[in-house]
Amino acid sequence: MLLKNIKYGSKVYTDDAIGYDKVSYNFIHDVVNHAETYVRGQVHTNGLENFWSLLKRGLRGTYVCVEPFHLSRYVDEQVFRYNHRKDGEFKVTDSERFKIAMRQVAGKRLTYSELTGKDQSPRSSATGTREAQTPF
Predict the structure, then answer these.
(1) 57 and 95 co-located in one domain
(2) Tens-digit pLDDT string for the chain (136 aa)
(3) 127 Cβ partners below 8 Å, 6+ apart?
(4) Model pTM?
(5) Domain with 92 in it
(6) Which one of 52, 95, 115, 116 is most buried, by most CB atoms within 10 A?
(7) Is 116 inside any structural domain?
(8) Is residue 81 within 8 Å of residue 96, measured between CB atoms?
């Protein structure tokens, strides 16, 4: 999973979980042992833990019925929100974040089928409808 998503030679900071033992083979790997400390210089996992906390809170609270097929879209939205929290020292407001998002989609076409994934969803039939079939 890491090899697919992280550039070879990148800095990777993790906790000391055993699953990260071989990360140093492909990346510049530094570890923080949470039994001793949570921050060691620049090495910490606080940002990532904060991101996952916000994502889980959104999935459980705001988006209470998330289908696995759409999960990547919810993650993308949270990544956008997280990456646009601040502009330097200044907090970005919701309206400023909305303007940034609109600048990125201006002039692009998104069909209903693309938005809903009906053309790729395992629950849709070849016609693109989601009508339930009667068991009788």
Answers:
(1) yes
(2) 777 888 888 999 998 888 888 888 889 999 998 888 889 888 888 888 999 999 999 998 888 788 888 888 899 999 999 999 888 888 999 999 999 999 988 888 888 888 777 766 555 555 444 555 555 4
(3) none
(4) 0.64
(5) 46-107
(6) 116
(7) no
(8) no
